[in-house]
Amino acid sequence: MPIKKAIITDAGFASRFLPITKTIPKAMIPIGAKPVMQLCVEECVAAGIEEIIIVVAPNTKSKEIYEDYFHGKSENVKALLEKQGKMDRFTPVEEIQNFPKITIIEQDINLPYGNGSPIVSAKEYVKNEEAFAVLYSDDLILGPSDVKTLIDTYEANKSAKAVIAAQEMPEEVWNKYGMIALKENGTLSHIVEKPKTPDLSPSNLTSYGRYLLTPEVFDYLIPSNTGLDDELWTVDAITKLAEHGDVIISRSQGKWITTGDPKNYFLAQLEFVLAHTDYGDDIKKICDTIK
Hints:
The protein is an alpha/beta fold. It has 10 helices and 13 strands.
């Protein structure tokens, strides 16, 4: 069976981005001219994914906003642009409307806090798949699609319980991320979350929000299996998978950047704009004038 489904999560409340996130979901904040979520969707499209389940925060406007963004026809905008002879400006909207199937669901309010809960909320959509991709919308990939790399790695390792993306990171940031410990055969042993000192990090490989999981993960990603801070953690379930088989480490062919806080969002915005827009050179000129 081809890998054809992906889950993208945006179910937190993004308190570090208040006040804007009291009105719109965090992954709707733009990078360049597109919201972060669209860039995640495009990464899935590049990998041949046919159905995407976006999991959003419950009891908010998020579901309505995403439904309108991905499914709204914008006929009033189209009519105006037709009248003005500017239909080229409507092309980006038509591109969104031609995306594969996108389903928007709210996270189950009965689940504990934690980054594993959005995945559990989407269980019914993926439980019969051979495997499925998971993307945290905080994380963006510049360059080749991580989802495609994960799928290609899985296709070459069909007995794997999961495949997780990894990127080498400098020592000064190891204390901010989950650092990968390897078994002798090079597969995952476990992940050390935010080691306080460099000597506590088992490697220079960082795990982030790109996974290819088999439905067996739901044997361990259950509400009663909360971990640190009484949260339901995806990496805890992945570590359990690693105890029962191989979890393959797939090194990113692109560059991982995070948008999870205002500082890193700005740095991600700057890096994306410099590399992927026709006004990157103008930004560079401005930066050169700043002292």
